[in-house]
Predict the 3D structure of the following.
Amino acid sequence: MATETSIVTVIPVYNHPDTVGHMLRGALDAGLDCILVDDGSSPECARVLDALAADHAPRAMLVRLDVNQGKGSAMIAGMRHAARKGYTHVLQIDADGQHAIADIPAFASLARQHPGSMICGAPIYDDSVPKARLYGRYVTHVWVWINTLSLEIRDSMCGFRVYPLAAALRAIDSADIGKRMEFDIEILVRMFWQGVPFITQRTPVTYPMDGLSHFKAWRDNLLISGMHARMFGGMLLRSPVLVARKMRGWVT
């Protein structure tokens, strides 16, 4: 059982056989063990994951979901496996190659310096970002700022981040958190409500190396909109606490 800060990378994977190996090697080269979570991938991708786990054992572990359940379900499965193995922190990074593996050490270093904080990536985009996705993100940013009564969460949608694992699991166990793309947003708001501090790390993001995105515009935007509505109700219930916390911050 880990007694100090012990970080493991969790990579949720759904049909990214051409890029996941690159992301795994980035985590391993940064000195972190890695949990690959196969979220019901195709047989081709499943074979790639089997080979990667075998080639890099014991530092690479494979968790498999029999059917596709969504990014949130894959992350929750990876987090619970990490907790069973005694890790204290989970570094989340996507399998599609959009995140800069060169920044993994910077994220890990911040987590070690601030073990009780949530380390969140804030994207630095190049010209590959779809403009519709870019503008849509700002709508979510505004809703997150409303639902936290704070600007502390600079970007809630970047999948490159480090969770203090115990706090993340408390948030997961406290509510029926969304299991697909809305997961990344909702868990941060719920951790903020619990009083977890946030630190932002800027990082380059491209869209994506293999050209495959699993963001489904109608379905995922509908899920995210419903999540924002639920969270707004939760904010209203918690608003006296959130306002009091902000006022204490102004005083200090």
